[in-house]
Amino acid sequence: MSILYVGSEVGQLKRVLLNRPDRALVYLTPSNCNKLLFDDVFNIQKALKEYDIFVKTLLSVKGIKVFFLQNLLLETLEIDKAKEWLLNTQISNFRYGPVFSQNLRHYLKNMKNKELASILLGGLAYSELNIHSSSILPQINQSLDFVIEPLPNHMFIRDTSCWLYGGVSLNPMMKSSRKRETNHLRAIYRWHPMFSKQDFFTYFFDENINYDNVHIEGGDILVIGKGVVLVGISERTTPQGVESLAFNLFKNNQARELIAINLPKARSCMHLDTVMTHVSIDTFSIYPKVMHRDLDTWSFTPTLNGEVKIKKAENYIYAIEKALGLSSIQIITTGGDKYQAEREQWNDANNVLTVKPGLVISYEHNIYTNEKFDKAGIKVLTIPGNELGRGRGGTRCMSCPIERDSI
């Protein structure tokens, strides 16, 4: 079995991918933040300081190794075939037109790979572009317009790709401003030596396929262990995406059951992990205003003839208990009164990263929920997140485990 394996949400975390946002945040302004899926701009220095504390906290837990996306992308670009593919894919004729795309690819190909990696992740304005092109595109655009749009949401690296048992899903993203992210991970998983020499399953990996209405994002996928996957049908994940994932998992014998929960289609709960996370073997944190028992829930299981059986479940709590063989699960609800709980849910109180059973990393400003974790026997390592939280993502969103123990 490949050592690239994620057997649960709560087993000992061993290796994890992160993406320190750096350059992408520089371009985030009040006039473009909504288009780039942010509600507000950051204090960049404070945001990066908070991020570095997150990294330091992760590394303080014994047994965890951290890998950064920009470093992996740089090392991937050192491989000629990977660099050519990535430039042809990200700077395509259809995105820029045949004249300007050729000029831009030539310009980028000849720069140092470290700078290229930074630009692909962080963006490039026309004012920074030192090339001559007969294309009308640079003549029409203003100097502060983007040649390559920044990818500040790439910080929430879990959404772009996520590991489920012995395989990885290269997620077809819902929002156009995030679609380029997937190709960075696609290139890394295909060519980087840490991955290319390993044997693992891939889902939605073929860039030549138009996945159409199949959308799925990692924030909606919880690998709850024992061959079971929990998925939210949300603002960013479609029923077609859920069914396609279930079919692929079962075809490769990588899961024995998928449980799907129909969530409200709202930004406040854009992903399942904004209202529910797994914090210990038998314990989940939920925001009860959203995660009530009467949410439509379905159980997907494989049949002997290779088809998928879909059955309506009584409720998601019973479905989880049955799937994991537990007589009951412990539920920790968002802390405080209804006003405090709503604020803390908005500030990612339920989006915590479990690093081993009963040990989570959470934003320090979610004091009421963190107190409830503590009283329930869940130890909390807190980090500042007043700036990072402006992107509507917590510590789970900002991490992509690639090796984690089962339960």
UniProtKB/TrEMBL annotation:
Keywords: Arginine metabolism, Cytoplasm, Hydrolase, Transferase. It comes from the Bacteria. GO terms for molecular function: arginine deiminase activity; transferase activity. InterPro entries: Arg_deiminase. It is found in: Cytoplasm. SUPFAM superfamilies: Pentein. It is an enzyme of class 3 (hydrolase). GO terms for biological process: L-arginine deiminase pathway. Its EC number is 3.5.3.6. Transmembrane segments: none annotated. Its main location: cytoplasm. The active site is at residue 397. It catalyses: L-arginine + H2O = L-citrulline + NH4(+). NCBIfam families: arcA, PRK01388.1. Belongs to the arginine deiminase family. This is Arginine deiminase.
